[in-house]
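Amino Acid Chain and Its Fold in Token Form
===========================================
Purpose: to set a sequence beside its fold so the mapping can be learned.
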Amino acid sequence: MSVLKYLQESLNNVWYHGTPDSREVDKSGFSTRSSTTTQITDPEKFNQIQQKLSTMSSDDDEYHEVLKMVSGLKAQYKYPTPIFLSNKRSVAGSYADDSRAYDYQNSTPKVYAVDVRDGKKVTIVATGDKFSHINVDKVRKGFTQSGVSDKDFDNALSKFNFADRSKGIKTDMIATIAHYLGFDTIDVVGVLDSYSGGSEKSTVKMVLNPKNISIANKGNK
């Protein structure tokens, strides 16, 4: 998907959310949920300790003391669990599969048409990438074009994505970084996202504040 086409479609401001069980949304609307992840409080010191550990043997007397220092640099970070939307009903519909529901025998799958108030938004052009892992350079470009400095982005990346990045940044880490940097929504443009796989490109919107979503008056089923 081209950026121009994305901008044209965004003017419509109607998005779709697919769920395997719509009963809670029908009753209470979209609700706030939280997730937690590990935050590195001092990335530079963390890397120094990791390098030191790589030169040591687990039999060394000092090894376990140094290992404790690693644990001391980790803290829990809470962020709002994003609500995922798509600009294509067919993609959202792939998630409206009652076999995914915990109570699948009584669940009611549904695709909602919704309106969204974006707030502060970052746009990541990820044409052709799988939504589960987005290329690091594409993520960086999206944040810097949205006003984040390279230094601030690198700092956030070091705090929340200290694992191997060769396959790209996971979706939940992008949401965490966006929340840490003060964003409300993340648009990932031209990405491959479908519960059952496939090759259909779309824009996925991650909304961190459910109060910014309202169910549209028409187009729901």
Q: What stands out?
A: The radius of gyration is 20 Å. The chain has a mean pLDDT of 86.
